[in-house]
Amino acid sequence: MKVRTEGGIRDLRAIWFSNGKVMMIDQRELPHRVVTVGFNNYLDVAEAIRNMTTRGAPSIGAAAAYGMCLAALSGIDLDLASKNIKAARPTANDLFFAVDHMHSLLKKGSDPVRAANDYADMIVRKCTKIGEHGSKLIRDGMNVMTHCNAGALATVDVGTALAPMRKAWADGKRFFVYVSETRPRLQGMQLTAWELGQEGIRHAIIPDGASAYYMEKGVDLIITGADRITANGDFANKIGTFDKAILAKHFGIPFYVAAPISTFDLDMKMGRAIEIEQRSEKEVTEVRGISIAPAGSPALNPAFDVTPAELVTGFITEKGIFGPKDVKKVMENE
Questions:
Q1: What is the pTM of this model?
Q2: Assuming Cys at both sites, which of 39, 55, 136, 163 could form a disulfide with 131, CB separation 3.0 to 4.6 Å?
Q3: CATH topology (fold) of 2-126
């Protein structure tokens, strides 16, 4: 992705490997500062996943792959490393997919760095294809809505939900993007809006609760990402996605989900089986360490919700666009 800095435009990935370290953009510092951090211990990479230094299902997968790489280079037992990395966060399927992928290759004697780099490159290629397929849905003059951040930061480079927008904009189409703020961590406001700004794509941040207001005024298309998609087409994504899907159904707005095949989990039959991560109530009740909630009032903070397949118009993947009823057929041919 192109990143505008005081020293000029830099071409950066969200995560990469350099000089024995796993490097990543610290997404907690955006949009005000572009800060990169490096780790040479796989447990530190697992902690970076847990504390959301890096986030977004495909980027979590890449971080997990590089974490396994570090473990192998350090002679750590691969079964132990797999267990510790998988424990970082429970919802995103890419984390588990990447760990198992790397574990298999490393057991066969593959070079750790090459295997992890290949995994990250594979994600970028898939996202590029997602952009090519999804851009056909975007027309000149459209109003598009998205939720959370499913851009280059969340996917190593290019993006899932933002990939079609990047491609369509590069092709000369001009449209407008409503970016919901995505409480409580504000990934939409702090990350998606920042990415769109780097690309010069027209957009505005809206409060999550204003989604229906703008849909009624005229939203033509909604594209979100996903963290896990089950065999029947239910999917988990950042909290607030389910709300938008219900509203989209009410207003007759096409609702698409962009994700690589690695996000699909055929072993999970339906969305109710997905483990939903419950994060600290302080993310809801505190701002910069200062409490904004009444004393004695607890907060509930689910990181994700599950949207049923019946609300999904289609999935945009590297294999093309298909409906929820075709998930099994596409995956079985994988």
A1: 0.95
A2: 163
A3: Four Helix Bundle (Hemerythrin (Met), subunit A) (1.20.120)
HSE toward the beta carbon, residue 77, CA cutoff 13 A: 4
pLDDT in tens, the chain (334 residues): 878 766 777 788 999 999 999 999 999 999 999 999 999 999 999 999 999 999 999 999 999 999 999 999 999 999 999 999 999 999 999 999 999 999 999 999 999 999 999 999 999 999 999 999 999 999 999 999 999 999 999 999 999 999 999 999 999 999 999 999 999 999 999 999 999 999 999 999 999 999 999 999 999 999 999 999 999 999 999 999 999 999 999 999 999 999 999 999 999 999 999 999 999 999 999 998 899 999 999 999 999 999 999 999 999 999 999 999 999 888 877 6
264 three-class SS = strand
Q: Which residues have a catalytic role annotated? A: 227
* Residue partners of 190: CB distance under 8 A and separation at least 6: 30, 31
Q: Where are the domains of the chain?
A: 2-126, 134-332
Note whether 254 and 313 are within 8 A (CB).
yes
